Amino acid sequence: MARLQVMPEPKLPQPEHASGEEFRCVCNKLLWIQRGDDIEIKCPKCKRLITIHTKGVTGIDVE
Hints:
The chain has strands at residues 21-24, 30-35, 38-42, 49-53. By secondary structure, the protein is mostly beta strands. It has a domain at 19-53. A four-stranded antiparallel sheet has the order 1-2-3-4, with no helix packed on it. A hairpin with a 5-residue loop joins strand 1 and strand 2 (30-35). The chain is globular, with a radius of gyration of 17 Å. It starts with 20 loop residues before the first strand and ends in a 10-residue tail after the last strand.
């Protein structure tokens, strides 16, 4: 029986804006990723990626 070897996909150079700052809850669950003035949220149920375009985040309140 032949063994299959899974090769990792090559890492492509990503533009500077591709990496973002992750914002997590105190329980360590990822809430969103901020990429410049854009906020990306991934729906945990349907896995859709939602991007909110802003002119900058001025503050974050945690209750």
